[in-house]
Specification:
The protein is mainly α. The chain has 2 domains: 9-74, Orthogonal Bundle (Arc Repressor Mutant, subunit A), CATH 1.10.10; 79-221, GntR ligand-binding domain-like (Four Helix Bundle (Hemerythrin (Met), subunit A), Up-down Bundle), CATH 1.20.120.530. The chain contains 10 helices and 3 strands, in the order αβααββααααααα. It has a 3-stranded antiparallel sheet with strand order 1-3-2. α1 (9-25) crosses α3 (48-60). The longest helix has 25 residues, at 79-103.
């Protein structure tokens, strides 16, 4: 994690949360590892109060677990946790998608089509290094799903979907270490876009729910790692 500058306390807390979150999602902070406020404060170059606020915020987002007076640890990963995360994601995202399909206009359609086109270009021109491929895929994948749900018109639904997507990112990073980035990411998303733009809410929501199961199957059903 990089040392942070000294803006206001609330800004420092948010920046610390971003830095710690990125370290957890990227695997620099291992599941179950202790998060010592003093060590994080020294590493980030800020006082302990914004760090504690950041850890409390991340606990509410499912990336950190608070143990009362015993401090904080990085949340563990497991098949059960991922299955629960997918269950909640499907409830939130399919609800938002139904609203987007019902309410989205020409601008929404154009944004979905543009996000899909970026995935198509990525599939045809993937970066050479694995790290660049993973980073580019994550950015474009998030962009596509944000565009897809943006038409729902609900800031709360969008914020909840973004947060759940972030929680799932560390599982996707594990999945991508096991299989690299599929060259067919465009095809994997094109059908969803086609269903949504055709205003087929049932078909699009069923496809999205199935799409969200891919990470669990690739990590756990193939016994790639232990529960």
């Amino acid at each position: 994690m990089n040392e942070l500058s000294e803006p206001g306390s609330s800004t420092l807390s948010a920046a610390a949360a971003d830095a710690i979150s990125a370290a957890i999602v990227g695997g620099d902070l291992a599941p179950g590892s202790r998060l010592a406020i003093r060590d994080l404060s020294a590493e980030l170059g800020i006082g302990p109060t914004p760090v504690r606020e950041a850890l409390t915020s991340l606990a509410g987002r499912g990336l950190v677990v608070a143990y009362g007076q015993r401090g904080f640890r990085v949340a563990q990963i497991s098949r059960q946790d991922l299955a629960d995360l997918i269950l909640v994601r499907n409830a939130i995202e399919t609800g938002a998608l139904r609203e987007a399909i019902a309410r989205g206009g020409a601008d929404w359609e154009a944004e979905v089509a543009a996000a899909l086109q970026r995935l198509k270009y990525f599939s045809a021109n993937p970066p050479a290094s694995v790290e660049e491929r993973v980073a580019s895929f994550e950015r474009l994948n998030l962009g596509f799903h944000k565009a897809l749900l943006a038409g729902c018109g609900s800031p709360r639904l969008i914020a909840m979907a973004d947060d759940l997507h972030r929680q799932a990112e560390r599982y996707r990073n594990l999945m991508l270490r096991l299989r690299d980035v599929s060259p067919n990411v465009y095809d994997e998303h094109r059908e969803l876009a086609d269903l949504a733009l055709a205003r087929d809410a049932d078909g699009a929501c069923a496809w999205l729910a199935e799409h969200n199961q891919i990470t669990l199957r690739l990590i756990y059903d193939n016994a790639a790692i232990a529960d």
